């Protein structure tokens, strides 16, 4: 079986499993819109460089998932402005082909290993999800 068709088969099988156990629907709008997730991590010890390095290590591992189209890992920028929020430790922004890909991603071992191995480092995280067209303009 060709790699791409094997991947498509596994993806469809995963989606079928998710749909059967979680009630996920796969309407056309869920396939067409780009899905972006931006997570802000607040470390329990924000000044602990070792904990920050561990979280960054975990996010870099997570970014290798084939379901993620693009990932950006960052820290607060030194910019000015009264409306700029800089109280988080690390940000993680990732782009998925669609919301279904993100839901499949969250069912995989790499995601569960990340949560199990690194969740003890943060006291909270804030998640922003958005959907929209693949191209603007």
Automatic annotation (TrEMBL):
Domain Stress-response A/B barrel: 35-130
Full protein name: Stress responsive alpha-beta barrel domain-containing protein
Lineage: Bacteria, Pseudomonadati, Bacteroidota, Cytophagia, Cytophagales
């Amino acid at each position: 079986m060709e790699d791409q068709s094997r991947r498509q088969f596994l993806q469809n099988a995963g989606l079928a499993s998710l749909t059967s156990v979680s009630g996920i629907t796969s309407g056309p709008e869920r396939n067409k819109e780009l899905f972006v997730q931006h997570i802000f991590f607040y470390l329990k010890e924000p000044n602990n460089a070792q904990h920050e390095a561990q979280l960054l290590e975990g996010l870099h591992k997570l970014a290798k998932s084939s379901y993620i189209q693009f990932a950006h890992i960052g820290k607060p920028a030194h910019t000015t402005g009264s409306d700029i929020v800089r109280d988080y430790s690390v940000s993680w922004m990732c782009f998925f082909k669609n919301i279904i890909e993100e839901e499949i991603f969250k069912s995989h071992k790499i995601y569960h290993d990340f949560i199990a191995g690194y969740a003890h480092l943060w006291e909270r995280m804030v998640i922003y999800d958005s959907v929209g067209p693949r191209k603007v303009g």
